[in-house]
Amino acid sequence: MQIDLKNKTALITGATGQLGRVMARTLAECGANIAIQYRNNEAKANELLDEIHAYGVRATIVQGDITSLQSILAMKETVQDQLGSVDIVVANAVVQYQWTSILEQAPEDYESQFESCVMQSVYLAKTFAPAMIERKWGRFIGINTECSMQNFPSQSAYVAGKRGMDGVYRVLAKEIGEHQITVNQVAPGWTISDRDRENKTEHSESYEQTVPLKRRGTDQEIANVVAFLASDLASFITGAYVPVSGGNVMPSI
Question: Could you say which protein family the record assigns here (predicted)?
Answer without folding.
Answer: Belongs to the short-chain dehydrogenases/reductases (SDR) family.
